[in-house]
From TrEMBL:
The protein's name: HAD superfamily hydrolase
SUPFAM superfamilies attached to this UniProt entry: HAD-like
Lineage of the organism: Bacteria, Bacillati, Actinomycetota, Actinomycetes, Kitasatosporales
Keyword set, alphabetical order: Hydrolase
Gene3D superfamilies per record: HAD superfamily/HAD-like
Species assigned in the record: Streptomyces viridochromogenes
GO MF, one example: hydrolase activity
Amino acid sequence: MPVLVASDLDRTLIYSAAALALTMPDARAPRLLCVEVHESRPLSYMTETAAQLLTDLGDAAVFVPTTTRTRKQYQRINLPGPEPKYAICANGGHLLVDGVSDPDWHAQVQASLAEQCAPLAEVQDHLMASASPAWVRKHRIAEDLFAYLVVERELLPEEWVKELAVWAENRGWTVSLQGRKIYAVPKPLTKSAAMHEVARRAGAELTLAAGDSLLDADLLLAADRGWRPGHGELADAEWTAPAISALPERGVLAGERILREFLKATRTEAP
């Protein structure tokens, strides 16, 4: 039976220049591979060692990139290794099969959202009315499924984020602060549901996962084993669970460690 590895991407396996956390002397810094270019500029990286580990993992397991990114944002990424058959985008809103969104899955997700939480338009209106232009740089709607703001983090009032989280909670939504982005996401829109569907299709009996943010918690809890890096929302909250390993590494070296753990578990714990 195959092993399924569902991993978050940004700040878990791939890193922007600002998130690399290269604290060692320059001469000892790892060699980096650019895996994303946007508007003709390099945007995301992993270490060359991590690139080889991901290639090995793609040969040994069913590797499923699992991201809150939209399909368009995901398709900018050029990961090393075999092309994944499955990918999870828009926090579970789209399940890609050979690069194409599965229409039946998407329709199922939309029906669930319509039944279980407040509509996107209500949340968008609240964000527009309550967020200050003094610290908001962009308002965005992702795939007609959820909303996010791009903010000036140093100007962002902590109290506003807390108040937004309470407001959203009462309407069946959740709030996550990741770098310069604040996400408002419907609670039924989960990476874990999509992971379970891929595991069913692939016939996987062992599921492994990794992630750094609040939006990854359900994914980690749904997997047989999970890992989180030493940075991000989950690390800041000291979040853990029985089958979750909290790693000490931060930045791009955490991505390398996570891939080592994936490979080790795939080779030693496969059914």
